From TrEMBL:
One annotated Gene Ontology cellular component of this protein: plasma membrane
InterPro entries given in the database record: Acid_resist_chaperone_HdeD, DUF308_memb
Positions of transmembrane segments: 7-24, 30-53, 62-82, 88-109, 116-136, 142-167
Record's protein name: Uncharacterized membrane protein HdeD (DUF308 family)
Keyword Aminoacyl-tRNA synthetase assigned: no
Organism of origin: Actinoplanes lobatus
Signal sequence range: none
Keywords: Membrane, Transmembrane, Transmembrane helix
PANTHER family, alphabetized: PROTEIN HDED (PTHR34989)
């Protein structure tokens, strides 16, 4: 079940990234909604995975669940109030990505399952994107869209490839 959830989340996240690429002239409201939607999908899926992953150590499940809830709350902030300034939006998305990246790394670390390398790559990439946004807060909307859409597409691909690797290993077993 967890591989299917990751597969679905990966497809949704990649589609959101493609939409952000395809619609660069979108207003700040649309951009905030898309990135908030991404954070909601990732937060909810991370929380559900933490609940259903019985084979995962309790500490990792608790941390992943806590990160999932926090990412979900940040996503709600983006979706609920998308007309805030660009600086605040960038800060909220960066915080959400930091939490999501850390959650992905925590869950993947120490596990010996197929696709774990993709999960760690996803966490590191999302963390680096968040750091880039925080280090250069004066980014324009176009640059943010480029970094953000690239991050979403890459995150979606990592989730999909990791999920497929897990599904293939289960089918082979």
């Amino acid at each position: 079940m967890s591989y299917w959830l990751r597969l679905i989340a990966g497809i949704v996240v990649a589609v959101i990234g493609v939409v952000a690429f395809a619609w660069p002239e979108a207003t700040l409201r649309v951009v905030a909604f898309l990135f908030g939607l991404n954070l909601l999908v990732m937060g909810v899926s991370r929380t559900v995975l933490a609940i259903i992953a019985r084979e995962t150590p309790v500490l990792q499940r608790v941390l992943a669940g806590a990160f999932g809830v926090l990412v979900t709350l940040v996503g709600v902030l983006c979706v609920q109030n998308p007309t805030d300034s660009l600086s605040l939006l960038l800060l909220i998305v960066a915080i959400g990505w930091i939490l999501d990246g850390l959650g992905e790394i925590v869950v993947a670390f120490g596990r010996h399952e197929p696709g774990v390398g993709w999960r760690i790559a996803l966490g590191v990439f999302v963390l680096l994107a968040a750091i880039a946004i925080l280090v250069w807060p004066g980014l324009g909307l176009a640059t943010f869209l480029l970094i953000g859409a690239t991050t979403l597409v890459f995150a979606g691909i990592c989730l999909v490839v990791g999920a497929i690797a897990g599904l293939r290993s289960r089918a082979a077993a």
